[in-house]
Amino acid sequence: MYTIQKLGDVYSSQPSLELSEELPSGTTIIMQTNGAYWYNNHPSGTTIQLSDFNKMGVAGSFSYNYGKNQEYRFVFDFSKAASGISSDSLNVTLAYMHKDTESTDSVKASVAIKMEAKGIFGLRGTAENLQITAPNNNGGCRWNRKNLILKVSAASDTQFPADAKLIIKESDKTYTYRKNNNDIFVVPLGWEQSDIVSLSLESELASQRGKTYPVEAKLCVGDAVETVSDLPQAAEYETEAVINDLSLKIADTPTPSLKIAGTQKILKITDKLKLTITMKDIPSDSTVHATIQQKGVNGYSGNFLDASVMQGDNEFSLGGITAAGSYQLLITVTKNNQKLLTVPYYFIVQDK
């Protein structure tokens, strides 16, 4: 912050900034003075006239007002610069030169701006081993209070399946994300200077089994968010870290099957129903359960048995049946409260 007290007209009406070295191409300087903002998108040389600053939002260049105190704040934006400065600090001097070129009464004030290396973001590796790098996120840098955001989108003008889910594994934790309305997965990540995650794609649609999707992964920076619903708006800054040759394959999940084999078709209530059950590709985290239902005018209904089922030979009691009739033993395979398949075995029960 520079504060200039009232100066007389013996000083130049063109105050300037004197820099210790020329700024790289792409630098923008923003000046705040007396509640207004001004900018210079293309500063060149080591002496920059304040009259070269344009007012934000309206036309007009800056002009110094004699007889009035001035306060200045300058912001140097290197985010779009092709390179940094050559030294580790930049000396900035605000100068009001005396009109008498031989006078030693010029007014100058200098500050040194410490420079830090440009933050480096990176993405490399494969979908199974995606390595993420980010700069330090200390309290004095521009990334303070920000999140890393990974955006994953389908490449080559394709679209993900309607029910697609992105599975992220980070260390010993697994997270599941659904795509937003723009067909993009937006994933918040903890800020780590070095991190490794794995990506995989899931879909319950049979037509998608085994299909491979080329995807683009992009690392962004966004404000910290409270809920997943905030994420589509979170990625406010796109880093240069992009990888566009990743492939995500939807697992070619085998179709589960179950076969019931038996010779008993007519039984008494006191008999045991002996059956051989053959199961194939049944998910390990599913439940295989058997019940017995009686046939009526509206089909089979009721619950005359509650038993678990195992691979191989099984015996089922008919003790719950109280009347002769046509019955079915119904085996149901369930996962996450969803039925994967049901297989019936029909038989008749006679009176004792």
Architecture overview:
The protein is mostly beta strands. It has no helices and 27 strands. Strands 20, 22, 23, 24, 26 and 27 form a 6-stranded mixed beta sheet that branches. Strands 1-7-3-4-6 form a 5-stranded antiparallel beta sheet, with no helix packed on it. The protein has a 5-stranded antiparallel beta sheet with strand order 10-11-16-13-14, with no helix packed on it. A hairpin with a 2-residue loop joins strand 3 and strand 4 (36-40). The relative contact order is 0.10.
How widely separated are the two ends?
102 Å
User: Order of helices and strands, N to C?
Assistant: EEEEEEEEEEEEEEEEEEEEEEEEEEE
Q: How many distinct helices?
A: 0
Global mean pLDDT: 85
CA radius of gyration is 36 Å
Shape category: rod-shaped
The class by helix and strand makeup works out as: mainly beta
Question: Main attributes?
Answer:
352 residues; 27 strands; five-stranded antiparallel β-sheet; 0% helix; six-stranded mixed β-sheet; mainly beta
Topology, please?
Layout: E1 2-4, E2 16-19, E3 28-33, E4 36-40, E5 47-49, E6 54-55, E7 70-77, E8 89-96, E9 107-114, E10 122-126, E11 129-133, E12 146-154, E13 165-170, E14 173-178, E15 184-189, E16 194-202, E17 212-223, E18 235-249, E19 257-261, E20 266-268, E21 272-280, E22 287-296, E23 299-301, E24 307-308, E25 312-317, E26 325-335, E27 338-350
